[in-house]
Description:
Elements: E1 3-7, H1 14-24, E2 28-31, H2 34-40, H3 51-67, E3 73-77, H4 80-93, H5 102-113, E4 117-120, H6 136-152, E5 163-166, H7 171-184
Parallel strand pairs: 1-3, 1-4, 2-3, 4-5
Helix pairs in contact: 1-7, 3-4, 3-5, 4-6
Amino acid sequence: MMRIAVTGTHGSGKTTLIDDFIAVQRAHESVPEPYWLLDQQGVPFANVATVDDLEEQLVASCRLILNHGGDRDVIFDRCPLDFLAYLEVVSASEGFEWLPSSRQLMDVSKALATLDMVVFVPLTSPDDIPIRIELPRLRSRVDRRLKTMLREDDLGLLHDGPRILEVTGPRAQRVEMITSVLGAA
């Protein structure tokens, strides 16, 4: 069973990539991002990203990944790294430094260890998304933080974890990058 998570800042094309991938790789089950699943459960969220909301999504992301059973291949929309990046950026904009607890880091590490691959959809210049995306400064800052987390493993969470695949280019090329790695696995 192959377990993949797609990560990237908002408006980077994660969900579109997952939809395109599922159209080609029908054996994979798609799991929506924690925000939408929590929203469906009636969990209220603020109109802007808050530390409390993001912490709740971090916990939900870890649980989704850790508790997902079944015998189908799966692709998750977002992973705990997304929420770590958002938490760092949002807390800094609120004037303090958010640091994960040892429990949170342990849960993130466990969740990441169950994944075979994390597919990173970075922002590119020029932007691959032709429409204006909300909260452009937050979007850019989270993208920069994810790039550092994934490329440098500055939190030390990836050394024994999943393979990291950074995808860029047209939609079909992104899907092909994933399927070619899967074919080689």
